[in-house]
Specification:
Blueprint (H helix, E strand, L loop, with lengths): L7 H27 L5 H16 L8 H33 L17 H36 L8 H32 L2 H18 L3 H27 L1
Helix pairs in contact: 1-6, 2-5, 2-7, 3-4, 4-5, 5-6
Length: 240
């Protein structure tokens, strides 16, 4: 067995970091598909369905707040997509420039071979491109929902608008998670140890934020209000 080399850290810590990040998101996807009410994603989608239903109970002329909410989401998605595109362009120019080896000095404790350096930049570029694509799709779905909500005298089903809003929210979430991966890969430029530490901290923060015991209470309240409203309408119809 040969002597220990610091290049071996990339072979150990980088796969562990990626496995930790991908493992958490696969676990989150499994929970969302099996028990959506136990995840923040399912809770937010539930709230959006309730929000769309409430907005359709008012007249078109009174739907200004709904249009303002969707417009603010469109503005945020457009801003983040622009930032992702600019960062992708900068990384592409950085790779093609002669200063691409600026982080290959002796202060980096890990592999500094040209192949590893280019893998870092390409992986980082891929994350920003995925984020850009997701934020563009977010804006597209929210714009479509904005058109449908503001359409007067329409017989569009509520479920159609709900799907557009939820799709936009899901693409927004994927874009944000891509930026989280990008943050981890940025720290990989400075070595595998900061990358591994960042992935552990990020997964820990995500696990803390996905504790939804109090969220289930809010969901049950929405259900109670919806069921109570339906019961009142049925009683009025039976009396009439």
């Amino acid at each position: 067995m040969g002597p220990w080399k610091k290049d071996y850290l990339d072979l150990v810590l980088v796969p562990c970091s990626l496995l930790l990040m991908f493992g958490y998101h696969l676990f989150l996807l499994y929970r969302y598909l099996k028990c959506p009410h136990t995840t923040v994603v399912g809770y937010e989608n539930h709230n959006m369905r309730a929000w769309v239903e409430r907005m359709f109970q008012v007249e078109v002329k009174d739907r200004g707040p709904a249009i303002s909410v969707i417009s603010s989401n469109i503005t945020a998605a457009t801003a983040l997509s622009s930032i992702s595109l600019v960062l992708s362009s900068l990384i592409g120019a950085w790779i093609g420039s002669s200063t691409a080896n600026i982080f290959t000095n002796s202060y980096i404790y890990g592999s500094r071979t040209p192949s590893i350096v280019y893998i870092k930049y390409i992986a980082l570029l891929s994350c920003f491109l995925v984020a850009f694509t997701c934020f563009v799709q977010t804006a597209r779905h929210f714009i479509h929902a904005n058109f449908l909500i503001s359409m007067p005298n329409s017989d569009i089903p509520v479920g159609c608008i709900e799907r557009e809003v939820i799709k936009g929210s899901n693409f927004w979430l994927i874009g944000l998670r891509s930026l989280c991966f990008a943050i981890t890969l940025i720290l990989w430029i400075f070595g595998p140890i900061p990358m591994f530490a960042c992935s552990v901290i990020m997964v820990g923060c995500c696990l803390i934020s996905t504790k939804t015991q109090h969220l289930c209470i809010g969901m049950s309240q929405f259900r109670d209000k919806n069921s109570r409203g339906r019961l009142i309408r049925r009683k009025k119809q039976s009396i009439g």
